[in-house]
Every structure is written in structure tokens, then in C-alpha cells.
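Hi R.,

As promised, here are both runs. First protein below:
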Amino acid sequence: MQQPSLHRLAFDGALLVRGFWLYIWEITTKDGSKIHYVGRTGDSSSLHAQSPFARISQHLGRNANANALRRNLENHELVAEECRAFRLFACGPLFPESHGQTEHTQSRDIVAALEKQLADSMRTAGYRMLNEVKCHRQFDLELWRSIVSVFTEPFPNLQSGAAREES
């Protein structure tokens, strides 16, 4: 029998708020290196925009339609259960959960463009990334500046990468 060990999970209650969020996962692999994943809440499959907390278990679960983080880890030959640490950094909600198709689509498209910009800026700033985000929409520069300022505290190299993206 394996010796049981104690594990902790702590989070801010605001992570339970549904809406359109951007987030960065920072995963420490079993060899101690760090790799990152950028995502968002609010997609095309539903008119509901989840909370970041709801995405945590979905991302690491076994449902192939919802576990994008686990799939990306496996694509990089990493096993989620062998990783040393998972940290989630979430910014939002950028927009509240909407109650109509038009409002949902508008918010979703704005956040999708910002998600791509965030992932590209993380990569440009030298962060090792698990995923590549595809979106051809133009991002909102004013909203982008407020988002990058939030993420710069935990990811200080992001500022220089973001500046290159804007110029």
C-alpha cells in the first residue's frame, strides 16, 4: 500500500463567476520545467460561458470533447498525473455571461481574438507553450492593454513580448 499524502487546493471565490474570461495555466513538469497553456471561457458549443473554476476539472478530465489541456500535455508526451504543479491565472470576467445568441457571439469573438493575442505574446516573450490558438479576428487594442497589464505581474516577460506585437 502506498503512503497517503496531503494535497491542497486554494482559490479565490471570484473564480466561480460565469462569464468570458482569459486564463493561463502554468504547469511544472516532473523534471521541474514550466510549460504554459492559454485558454478562454465562452465558446461556440453553448450559449453559456463557464467560470474558470468549471474549466479546471474539464481541462484535466477524461471527456475528449472538453479536456484540451490534458490532450495538449499528451501531445507533448507529458502525463498530467506526473506533473509537479498546476497554477491557473485568470483575468475576468471580461464580459458577463450573455443570454442571447447575438450578444454571446459578439463577446465570444472579441475574447477569441484576445486569447490568440495572449498565446502569441506569451510565445514571443519566450514562454514555452503547449497550445497554439487560431483566430483571424482583429483584437481590441484598448482591452488588450488592460489584459496584458494584469498578466504581466505573474509573467514579467510578457510585457516586452506584448510591446513587440503592438508595434
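And here is the second one, sequence first, then its C-alpha cells:
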Amino acid sequence: MSAAKQPKVWILLADGEHARVVEPSAREGQFHTVHVLHGPGTQAQHGGASRSDPHAAAKKHYAESIARELDRHAQAREFDQLTIVAPPHALHDLREALG
């Protein structure tokens, strides 16, 4: 009987301003950082962003940039499974933006 290849699991830890990807290490119960994902920053106002709440618009734009980066890694087949850990507002924006 041959051993099945373990899937490469990435875990995205994100909020509206920070994100990093970790994966389980060889030592049980431990993780190591694979990527620190940097969005475009929260200072800029972008087209289509709500002028009434620029902070919320910046967080949404950040989630969209993180999603684009994750999509690139997925297309490169750098992971097999992705788990997202984020507060509800960030999770909503990320899920809408992921390809």
C-alpha cells in the first residue's frame, strides 16, 4: 500500500488591514508563515469607493487585493486547500473577491 500525498493546506489569517498565510509544520500543532500579504495600503481612495465611509472602502479594496494575490497562488498550484480565518466583514469581502 502506497502512502497518499498529503494535500498542501494554506490557512489565511486576515482582518481588514493585515493578512498572512500559514501552513502546518512537520511538528504537530505548529504552523509557519508562508506569506505575509501586503495590500495597497488603507490611505488611498479608489474609484467606486464610498465617500461616506472611506475606511470601509479601503478595507474592501484591501480584501480585493489579497484575493487577487491568493488567486495567483492558486493558479500556480502552490496549495491544494485554503482555509480562511477572518472576522465576518473581512470574510464577506474576501469571499466576494476570490475567483
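A quick note on the second one: The longest strand covers residues 31-37. Let me know what you think.

Best,
J.
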